[in-house]
Design goal:
It comes from Micromonospora peucetia. The chain is 14% helix and 29% strand. It contains 8 helices and 30 strands.
Length: 425
């Protein structure tokens, strides 16, 4: 780790101290988002390992979330969340509690044996202890007033950046891949046949305000969900979200990112329970590419969420929906472009998760074998589903930097600019 950031180009030094531009989405409201822009020279770090990343964030992963000292952290090369301090890589077996094994878990909680009730008892307790072991290792806690920015093709693999109470934080120019869960939970009542659920997001934003997630790429790397086995009759799900915004977080801007080949991408809102999330969860998404992803683009509860000038390339048998309209959500989706493969139609792009209204205007769709054309997404949804959604979310976004592009221009602009390794570093 270089404590003074030696060897950085002038462009890297400039971008490391760059604040979110004025008016650029919800994270620009009020005081705006500056990250570690005021960091002293001693708080500018270049890291290339998990141990160095933890040290730069404050020194102790268990307490780093409370470290509010302004800091700029440049990531060089690959940082692996499964890396020990000596550089050796752990695997799931190393993190498992001695009393846990997957074959024993599958045998014990097979619905034919256990029934369709939640797992309990010694094996489930051992799984939970295993999860605790993994969380200590692969969940990297970030404190307030922090900028984390990748140099070149920097990659964070097998880890979660946990922004819990991390006010005024910037994450840019990083590739995130394979934030895998070694010990997924079996939920026998989740859906008609049960489901496996994992808990590790690539970036998790909780109880934080003024967060800017920009110019990153999110993938499952060489461990895609499609390659997982089937256990207890359901796909073994080892990945959760790319960027989830929950637990009263608010004032977040997600811009110029690529989300590629993932299942669950972005959940906004912790649960359907009316409570502290009401009035929070204000998130802006613009100029992102959603490429071959399946759902939660985003799925929203409660929040005022502004979705504009994004490009969606959607296809495949596993596709479920793009924008999920959840309880008391207020989504505005404007001037987005949807490129659809065979079997996906305009009526499939919204999904009613208990919401009632969504504003959609200026969106275009190019269906397989057809020309691009403007589409009223609410009318298309209502034509195929009951009950109807109403076409007014009840608010008008004002925090947008620069002109909103006409939807037909979006694919070219987003294709050229979105994702990691697009900034001049």
């Amino acid at each position: 780790m270089t404590a003074t950031g030696g060897g950085l180009s002038p462009a890297a030094r400039h971008l490391g101290r760059q604040a979110l531009p004025a008016g650029d989405g919800w994270a620009a409201e009020g005081t705006g988002t500056t990250g570690g822009a005021t960091a002293t020279a001693e708080q500018v770090h270049v890291v290339s390992s998990r141990a160095e990343l933890v040290a730069a964030l404050g020194g102790d992963n268990a307490t780093n979330r409370g470290n509010a000292t302004p800091k700029i952290i440049y990531v060089r090369g690959v940082v692996d969340g499964f890396e020990r301090p000596d550089g050796a890589l752990l695997d799931c077996v190393d993190l498992a509690d001695p009393a846990y094994s997957l074959p024993a878990y599958l045998a014990a909680y097979d619905p034919a044996v256990w029934g369709r009730v939640a797992p309990s008892g010694p094996l489930e307790a051992a799984r939970v202890r295993s999860v605790t072991n993994q969380t200590r290792q692969t969940q990297i806690n970030v404190g307030p007033n922090t900028t984390i920015i990748g140099l070149g093709d920097a990659r964070l693999t097998g880890l979660t950046l946990m922004l819990d109470g991390a006010h005024n934080t910037i994450v840019r120019n990083l590739t995130f891949d394979d934030a895998r869960d070694c010990f997924p939970a079996w939920s026998p009542t989740d859906g008609a046949a049960g489901n496996w659920n994992s808990q590790y997001d690539q970036v998790s934003v909780r109880r934080s305000e003024h967060v800017w997630i920009d110019h990153n790429t999110f993938t499952d790397g060489d461990n895609p969900d499609s390659g997982q086995p089937v256990h207890l009759g359901r796909p073994y799900q080892v990945h959760d979200g790319s960027v989830d915004v929950t637990h009263t977080a608010s004032l977040v801007t997600v811009s110029y990112n690529r989300f590629v080949g993932r299942d669950k991408v972005m959940l906004i809102g912790s649960s359907n329970t009316v409570g502290p999330d009401v009035g929070r969860l204000k998130v802006s998404l613009h100029h992102n590419l959603f490429d071959g992803v399946l759902q939660r683009l985003p799925r929203v509860r409660f929040g005022q969420v502004d979705v504009w000038n994004n490009h969606y390339r959607l296809a495949g048998d596993g596709f479920e929906y793009a924008i999920g309209v959840g309880v008391q959500s207020a989504v505005v989706a404007e001037n987005n472009f949807f490129s659809l493969g065979a079997g996906v139609g305009a009526g499939d792009l919204l999904y009613d998760w208990g919401g009632t209204a969504v504003t959609t205007r200026g969106n275009w769709v190019r269906a397989a074998g057809d020309r691009a054309r403007p589409v009223d997404l609410v009318a298309a949804y209502n034509g195929a589903h009951e009950p109807d959604l109403t076409p007014d979310a009840g608010w008008t976004p004002t925090l947008r930097r620069g002109p909103v592009l006409p939807a037909p221009a979006v694919p070219a602009v987003v294709g050229a600019l979105a994702g990691a390794d697009r900034l001049p570093l």
